[in-house]
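User: Small ask, check this?
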Amino acid sequence: MTRNLKITARKTDRKNCRVFGHVKYLNSQVDARILDLSLTGAALEMKGPLHAASGSKVRIEAENLGLLEGIIRWKHNGRVGIQFDVNSNARAQISSYFRFFHKEMRPVLAIRQLAKAGANSDRMPHLATSTLKS
C-alpha cells in the first residue's frame, strides 16, 4: 500500500467475487465469504466472530483458491481486510482462480435496489414481450 498525504491507497485493483471458505487463526476457524480479491489481498465477510487483532497472521482456505496466508489489515462490522504474503505460490493460486473460476459479480445492493424499484412500479417492461410486439 502506498501513502500520499497520510491516505492509504491500494496498489492493485480488486475484483468482486463470491468464494466461500474458512479463516483460521491459531486454533480457531470461522466460515467466511470472500467479497473481493486481488493479487495482493482480499476483503472477507465473516460468518462469526474472529478473535484476532489487526496485524495477526491468518490462513484462508477456499475450494477454488487453495490455502493462502496473510495478515489482517483492518476489521469493521464483521468484515476483514487481509493482505496476502507476497510469494510466487500465492500469486500463482490467485492468477489460476481468475483464469479458470472467476465470474464477474455485481454488488448485491444494486440488484436489491432494482428489484425493490420494480416491485413498486405498476408495470415492468419485459424485454421478450416488447420485442415480440414490435
In short: The chain has three helices and eight strands. The mean pLDDT is 76. Residues 13 and 102 are 15 Å apart (CA to CA). Helices lie at 88-100, 108-120, 127-133.
